[in-house]
Amino acid sequence: MFIDSHCHLDFPELSERLPEILQKMQDNQVSHALCVSVTLPEFPNVLALAEAHPNLYASAGVHPDYEDTEEPSVERLLQLAAHPRIIAIGETGLDYYRLTGDLEWQRERFRVHIRASRASKKPLIIHTRAASEDTLRIMQEECAGTGDGGVGGVMHCFTESLQVAEAAIAMGFYISFSGIVTFKNAKALQEVARAVPLERMLIETDSPYLAPVPMRGKTNEPGFVRHVAEYLADLKGVPLDTLAAATTQNFRSLFQVH
Length: 258
Prior knowledge:
single chain, alpha/beta, TIM Barrel, eight-stranded parallel beta sheet, 10 helices, globular
């Protein structure tokens, strides 16, 4: 069985087809999926999915790309994270690719999420793009790792260097690969995936975006995470069952679900 560690089933491209998407998960042996929050106003839709479906989980957080939205506080995130169907804080992090200028608000928002993770003992879902140096620095400054009261988390939709992956792993984080790793022009990322140990690897779709080969051009969905797993198993030279078992156990260990 496979688990999609990061998707956005509340987005209209997917929410309007939910029965079909859940059936396709079952058809492709995808047992569970984590629906990830990106803003506070839309959080109730994310939570509702997890409340209605036992094989869906949810997170609480505000994505770094959303500048003009309700700003989270530690207290607010803790209130949301107290719900038993909320298993993570995020997604959070830094993105210097889409936004420019003074991004101190982004860094402060990231710190708020790390503090909420430490207080709630629920792991972080971290987004980083063109910002790895500051991302790692803030993680270290705020003790986001598994020591000093932190519980670690996952570097989602990973596209950075092996050095960044190793630094995150050293702090107790997992590295999650999306459909990007299957793309022909992702040679550097494929080398990173080859080097990341199975015991620190997760798989995801980040759907409705980034459909993997051979589904490029289609709306991505959790059932397609099987293609990510198949590609990674071939890349690492391990049986598909081995990769499926490892990534499923990693998900359960990180997010404390059974």
